[in-house]
Write a structure and sequence with these properties.
This protein has 448 residues and is mainly alpha-helical. It is built from 24 helices and no strands. The protein has a domain of 236 residues. Helix 14 runs antiparallel to helix 16. The longest helix has 27 residues.
């Protein structure tokens, strides 16, 4: 039975699919309404008894949401103490004097911070820094802004915490930080090199003009502007950042140690969730008033709650059997061949991520890949194909990734004109295809 025949014959399946599509369409064209429409959709599913109370709890994916909450609190604390600007001020001397050097270092830093904290946080403070640097050197901010954004998107694939897509794949595929550092990080680094060359070629005239502008500026004055917001609690901030990164990187080993030697019963996903949660508790207890401010102003509650209710809506596709139909379609076209599934999943996720935010694409399709795994098929390479195709093809349009959507909101808040869609696609579409094909080719060499 194909998907159309299935949903027509099953009332609950048809209702779940219609609600899912409405939420996706509204989120795509009216991002600011993503939370209310997802709440309404989830409520209707409960009202129609397609999902019950236990289903709500089961499909919420609280492990992902709690992980993100913990990281937002930690990063919010670092931002409140101007920690990231402090770090940039320490290396500005290496960038000053050459537009090429500034672009290359800022792109590496963008990718690094994205992998280190997450792409949403990275775009928040690096976009502000981009405007600040462009103002200091009296140049057009858009080339540097695009270079930073694309680097953040690419860099997020290196680690579990770099991108919400990475996090979903890690939890659904039971992948550890070690897996990401072994399989994803090398491809991310190589792709970043390709991206830097591409950006420098595209914006070479702007970069040359930036160099000329730098020659007329004094490094001391540039550095003093960056240091105008004095950093606080630098030692404590450095300690908690290093500690949470160590706990995340070693969460698989920590789970094994606790289980084997201390009699605990923890899986690696639970240990991964606990790492930022414990550190965020320490951060909040250090300064109660600051902690309250972080919880209110630094945690992106709209996005967290949207994830909760969207996961529930995707869960309705599982409850009604639609995801099983998708699984059987993939098996039907691939004949249970891992290589054919690899290509098919890469094509589907890449194509959808051009038109739909990649986090929605992956949140929908990742449970399907998990069903393939539960059927006994070898899907390990498919997780990486989904990661790179969804993230890199998401560069194509302003709505393809979480970071680009956040940037659109920041431009609106600053009352700055958005980058025109045709300009974005003219720059983004070629590098999206180049990066995706490059990453998939390396995966092909490794696995096939």
């Amino acid at each position: 039975m194909n998907l159309l025949e299935f949903v027509v014959s099953e009332y609950d399946s048809l209702a779940a699919l219609v609600i899912f599509l409405i939420v996706v369409v509204v989120t795509l064209f009216k991002w600011e309404y993503r939370l209310p429409i997802s709440i309404i959709g989830s409520s209707i599913l409960l009202m129609l008894n397609i999902l019950n109370y236990d289903d709500f709890l089961r499909y919420m994916n609280f492990n992902i949401v709690i992980f993100l909450l913990g990281m937002m609190v930690i990063v919010g604390y670092l931002e409140e103490n101007n920690y990231f600007t402090y770090l940039i001020s320490k290396i500005i001397k290496y960038m000053h004097g050459s537009g090429y050097r500034l672009f290359i270092i800022m792109m590496f830093l963008s990718a690094f911070f994205s992998a280190l904290v997450d792409q949403v946080t990275a775009i928040l403070f690096l976009s502000a820094l981009s405007f600040e640097l462009s103002s200091l050197y009296e140049t057009d901010p858009y080339p540097l802004l695009i270079a930073i954004l694309f680097s953040i998107i690419v860099g997020g694939t290196a680690t579990v915490i770099g991108d919400p897509v990475s996090l979903i794949i890690a939890f659904q595929g039971n992948l550890t930080m070690t897996d990401f550092l072994h399989w994803a990080a090398p491809i991310t680094l190589l792709t970043l090199g390709v991206l830097i060359i591409y950006i420098i070629l595209i914006f070479r005239r702007h970069v040359r003009g930036l160099t000329k502008s730098m020659e007329s500026k004094d490094l001391v004055s540039v550095k003093s502007v960056l240091m105008s917001n004095q950093a606080r609690n630098v030692g404590f901030s450095t300690t908690i950042l290093i500690l949470v990164l160590i706990l995340i990187m070693l969460h698989g080993y920590i789970a094994s140690f606790l289980n084997n030697y201390l009699g605990f019963s923890l899986d690696s996903n639970t240990t991964l969730m606990l790492a930022p949660l414990i550190i965020s508790g320490i951060v909040l207890s250090k300064d109660v008033e600051l902690g309250r401010r972080i919880i209110i102003h630094r945690v992106d509650w709209d996005t967290l709650l949207f994830f909760v209710f969207f996961f529930i809506i995707v869960g309705s596709l599982d409850k009604t059997g639609i995801l099983l139909v998708f699984r059987d379609i993939i098996i039907g076209y691939s004949g249970e061949s891992t290589f054919k599934m690899f290509l098919l999943v890469a094509f589907i996720t890449g194509l959808l991520s051009i038109f739909v935010a990649n986090i929605m694409t992956v949140a929908t399709l990742a449970p399907v890949i998990k069903l393939l795994y539960l059927k006994g098929l070898y899907v390990f390479p498919i997780w990486w194909a989904m990661l790179f195709s969804s993230v890199y093809m998401g560069i194509s349009t302003p709505i393809g990734t979480t970071a680009s959507l956040v940037l659109l909101g920041l431009l609106d808040k600053r009352r700055v004109e958005r980058i025109p869609l045709h300009t974005w696609m003219k720059i983004g579409l070629p590098i999206a295809f180049i990066s995706t094909i490059f990453a998939l080719f390396i995966l092909f060499l490794w696995f096939f």
